[in-house]
Amino acid sequence: MEYGIKFIYGFLLPPGLFVTLLAVVSFLLFQKKRRAAYLTGGLMLFMYFSFIPLTGILLVHPLEERYQPPAVPKGDVIAMLGGGATLGTPDMNGNGQLSGSAANRLLTTYRLYRQTRLPIILSGGKVYPDSGVEAEIGKRQLIALGVPRSEIIVEKKSITTKTNARNTKQLLDRFHFHRPILVTSAFHMPRAVLIFNKQGMHVTAYPTDYLVSRKVFLYPGQFVPSNGGTAFTALKEYVGILVSLF
Questions:
Q1: Could you tell me the mean pLDDT of each successive run of 10 residues in the chain, 246 residues long?
Q2: Which chain regions cross the lipid bilayer (predicted)?
């Protein structure tokens, strides 16, 4: 019963509502304006397949499968890329929190530190006016978890993956590191590795923050439009990879 209600709601609430409205308009136009009906129907199908979870899963899977976290990561420093932060929001020991992706990356970075005792580079600045400074927030939270202040290097000017790579390279040269273990979201890792390599760094990829499960399951919910945005996240990465090749 609950799944049936969710299925219906999926077509009555945005973005599924737009698909439903386009389907109704296409049906009404079909008798008198076939060409307009076909155009409307085509737009409806495009929106439908753009918003169903299955499309996003199929697009994200190749990105997240590209690299696997090594059982014994080898390197001399852990480099974590920022992934968003809120400004001024209450935290247990200060203000500002890392967003979902960045928080997952920080958790993995902390666990890697516990395993390797390697120093940490946090790369991430203030991306938008209402964003927190990602590296500073991450540093405060790592210190609260017990990581010594002296083991954390903050790089707080980067606002893109390209600037992450360029500024991290400067820190590697400054502190004489040569083999960074790169921590970022699994869907973002292929683009990040490509950009870091172009800056002359050969990283050990340690992906985290997976968006989809390893195995694809088919059930009704996979065909109901949602606002998860997984497909658009994947498309952004594919476009970014294409641009980074040139």
A1: 77 91 92 91 95 96 97 96 96 94 98 98 96 97 98 97 98 97 98 97 97 93 88 95 92
A2: 7-30, 36-60
pTM of the full structure: 0.92
48 membership: H or E segment, kind and range: helix 34-51
> What is the total count of domains within the chain?
2
- Give residue 71's pLDDT: 94
If asked whether residues 115 and 11 sit together in one domain, one would say no
The answer to whether residues 85 and 133 touch, using CB atoms and an 8 Å cutoff, is yes
Tokens of 85: 């932060």
The Cα 208–Cα 64 span in angstroms is 9
Cis peptide before 15 (omega within 30 of 0): yes
Render 116-133 in DSSP notation, one character per residue: H---EEEE----STTB--
Instruction: Kindly state whether residues 81 and 176 are assigned to the same domain.
Output: yes
- Region for 217 from its dihedrals, namely left if φ exceeds 0, alpha if ψ lies in -120 to 50, beta otherwise: beta
Those residues whose C-beta lies under 8 Å from the C-beta of residue 193, and which sit 6 or more positions away, are 67, 182, 203, 205
